[in-house]
Amino acid sequence: MSTIAGVNYLTTQDTADASSRMPVKALGQQDFLKLLVAQLTSQDPLNPKQDTEFIAQMAQFSALEQSKSMQSDIASLRGDQQMLQAYGLLGQTVKLQAEDGIDPVLGTVSAVQNEAGTPKLMVDGKTYTLDQVLMVYPSAVATQN
């Protein structure tokens, strides 16, 4: 950056540096450690912070990280459970809430589609979500000769 008579001119290098300094939406463990080191190095030597304050901050951050991880794992498990539930309906006769909300649809689940992580049931050429299933009828038992 060069300054002429109080006017700043950005060079291409300055612009590249500015874009690499864009704020991150979520702080990670590395960010917390950087903040902790900054706190330690900039504290007043005559009035230092107690180590218990730092330990409490680290414990809170650790609990937050574990909570985020658990939330992500639960969401993944929920998606897997829905897919298993949808695959379990293949070949089953189901009663579905129609789009118009008036007349239910009765048909056999012929396929399962995965649209953005959400299972969709294919019944008579139309797709339905799992929450539209009103009833599942037992499949006919094949007789052996």
TL;DR of this structure?
With about 140 residues, the protein is an alpha+beta fold.
Write up what this structure looks like.
The protein is α+β, with helices and mostly antiparallel strands and 145 residues long. The chain is 42% helix and 25% strand. Strands 6-5-4-3-7 form a five-stranded antiparallel beta sheet. It is rod-shaped and about 80 Å long. The termini are far apart.
Question: Could you outline the blueprint of secondary structure elements for this entry?
Answer:
Blueprint (H helix, E strand, L loop, with lengths): L1 E3 L2 E3 L2 H9 L8 H14 L8 H38 L4 E4 L8 E11 L2 E6 L2 E4 L3 E5 L8
Antiparallel strand pairs: 1-2, 3-4, 3-7, 4-5, 5-6
